[in-house]
Design brief:
The protein has seven helices and four strands. It has 171 residues and is mostly helical. The strands form two sheets. The protein has a two-stranded antiparallel ribbon. The protein has a two-stranded antiparallel sheet with strand order 3-4. Helix 1 packs across helix 2. The longest helix is centred in the first third of the chain and has 24 residues, at 3-26. It starts with a helix and ends in a 19-residue tail after the last strand.
């Protein structure tokens, strides 16, 4: 490849890495595992299942889409432009007591309900949970208490991403 193309590709890879590092330190990054593709035969029956490994190109596109969607959500919200926002409230309200009880049993100095209901407190606790091996084991139980993502006309936090505003602008 020509040197200018390689330089552009290296720059994209660097921006992607820096953006992911930012999200890992300030927001929430979820690894969803591999994707799969189904190969069908002529009778439209599944012939095989192929595991698709993410490449650098996948990561570049993912980071670009996330930052664009976040930026557009902020822009639409700040300029009072009608949009369909993607909201995630964190812990289901009816599960807050369960979450608090779980954390009191397994986490030294656990966050209280008020902290879990604030984006900053939620993100801080998820980072703590993932960084401390003694409490990381509760993450699968904790995540089952999450609310479902909702679409709405008003901007609201997306706790699952650790983002103050989010919408799907890119797809």
């Amino acid at each position: 490849l020509p040197a200018d193309v390689l330089a552009s590709m290296n720059a994209l890879n660097d921006v992607t890495s820096r953006r992911r590092d930012y999200r890992q330190s300030k927001q929430i990054v979820s690894d969803h595992g591999p994707d799969y593709r189904l190969r069908l035969n002529d009778a439209a029956k599944v012939e095989s299942v192929l595991k698709v490994e993410k490449t650098v190109a996948h990561r570049v596109v993912e980071e670009c889409m996330l930052v664009t969607n976040s930026a557009m959500a902020n822009y639409f919200n700040e300029h009072d432009i009608a949009a369909i926002f993607v909201n995630h409230a964190g812990i289901k309200p009816e599960r807050l007591n369960d979450a608090e009880a779980l954390l009191k049993r397994h986490v030294p100095e656990p966050p209280n309900q008020a902290a879990l209901q604030s984006l900053e407190g939620f993100v801080s606790f998820v980072h703590r949970m993932r960084s401390e091996p003694t409490i990381a084991a509760i993450e699968p139980v904790f995540t089952r208490m999450y609310a479902r993502t909702q679409l709405g006309r008003q901007a609201a936090s997306h706790f699952g991403l650790g983002n103050p505003n989010y919408l799907t602008f890119t797809s």
